[in-house]
Amino acid sequence: MSRLAISTLGALKGAVARGAVPRRSVREEVRDNLIGKLRAGEALFPGIIGYEDSVVPQLVNALLSQHNFILLGLRGQAKTRLLRALTTLLDEEIPVVPGCEINDDPLAPLCGACRARIAAEGDQMPVSWLSRDLRYVEKLATPDVTIADMVGDIDPIKAARSGLQLSSELTMHYGLLPRANRGIFAINELPDLAGKIQVGLFNILQEGDVQIKGFPIRLPLDVLMAFTANPEDYTARGKIITPLKDRIGSEIRTHYPSGRGEAMAITAQEAWLARNGASPGVEVPPFVAEIVEEIAFQARQDRRVDKRSGVSQRLPISAIENVVSNAERRAIASGEPVAVARVTDVYAALPSITGKFEMEYEGEIKGAEAVARDLIRASVATVAEGYLSHLEARSVIEWFDLGGSLQLSDTMSAADVLQHAGQVQGLLELAHAAGIPANPPPPMLAAGVDFLLEGLYATRKISRSEQRGYHGADPPVRKPTREREVSHEEAPKGPAGGKKKYYN
């Protein structure tokens, strides 16, 4: 018998007796389905990249242990996405009492209204089926959340309309927690939840029930609870009260991508790069994608950026979208069929970068835009060294050192870039050797030329003005020599026993 045929309480009882419909708690359900996926070798959390050997094993252990758990991590570490992926471990559908606010089990109802209905209708009572997506409830913790929002309260309007006493169970207004019964309840940013509200979570975490204010009844809810928090808030500011921490079964730490390859895979998955409509086609060369990704890695190490706040993976996602948009704008203006991103487009993406990190004092003094430009240049240098280390760029450098100059613009068409670049000895040949395929279209070759020039500038082989005029490297500035006299005690004696003069 299919589940669609199980439409009454009597049919459900028969299906349960035959084992066609399992009866188990939500934690047992998640555990059983997880074991089935592990045995089948299926992907546990599709779309989660970089956690296969770190976070996922710890999360699997917590679920196998039937623990409530908390994910600790800085912003942009896929904590919420990981929580929402837990719904894939739930059954596709479960039977519920139709219209029940707390998804009551028809075979073991909790609320008085459902018990009364079953007593009145018996085995002929209809049964509804609740899909897995509707069994996930998520709440962003904010200081203004009340205990009534989370647990529930007495509704005097409902009592008045029904002619009931306020003490009646039927006057209850259920909060988010009871409405998540037989499902997963997630709280994001747990430290922001007021202390008295955290106290209200004690019973559900330990004893599995809640008490509604003003009515002496307990609801033994069946809920898997999951939380997220920033580790700085969790450990240093101490906003999660100790008894609540003690009741959370597992504490799992998330992290940023460990390498550029993982980060590029995440960005490629999340960024909107497949443009549509009347716009030209879009292509992002590998070196541009690497540079955009490297900006986040550089920012996480920079002393001017607040490491406690973190640098979200949203930075490269937003930046690469702006990079493509700038290339798209240039291609439309130039009438080119394909918009190929260039390194200089990364500088045009500054508005999508500067708001993605918090500054330390030194960074505040210099300014977010100046720091972002420094990060881009450092990223270009890091990526360019990998490409240029095996290439001989001496002829290009010498051409600039001998007085040559080249003026380009980020709005210049590919044909104009190549025409100007043809003046520089060996530049076009070097662009082919820097990862550009054979017989490339002009926009791709222009992107290679742009990458080489910006790479030589970032590694201080040549210089560039703010107006993108490239010329020979500026000579190092020498400090003026000045005479410094040292004290009689520290000065070694000269032949005549007098003081020596030191020059620096």
Supply the number of structural domains. 2
Q: How is the main sheet built?
A: 5 strands, parallel
Strand content: 5-15%
The proportion of residues forming helix, as a percent range, comes to 40-55%
Strand order of the largest sheet: 4-7-10-1-11
Average pLDDT over all residues: 86
Which secondary-structure class do the elements indicate? alpha/beta
- The shape is elongated
**In CATH, what is the homologous superfamily of the largest domain?**
P-loop containing nucleotide triphosphate hydrolases
What do you see in this structure?
- The chain folds into two domains: 3-253, Rossmann fold, CATH 3.40.50; 260-472, no CATH class.
- It is elongated, with a radius of gyration of 32 Å.
- Helix 13 (260-270) crosses helix 15 (314-334).
- The strands form seven sheets. It has a five-stranded parallel β-sheet with strand order 4-7-10-1-11.
- Residues 481-504 have low confidence and may be disordered.
- It has 504 residues and is α/β, with parallel strands linked by helices.
- The N and C termini lie far apart (94 Å).
- The chain contains 22 helices and 18 strands.
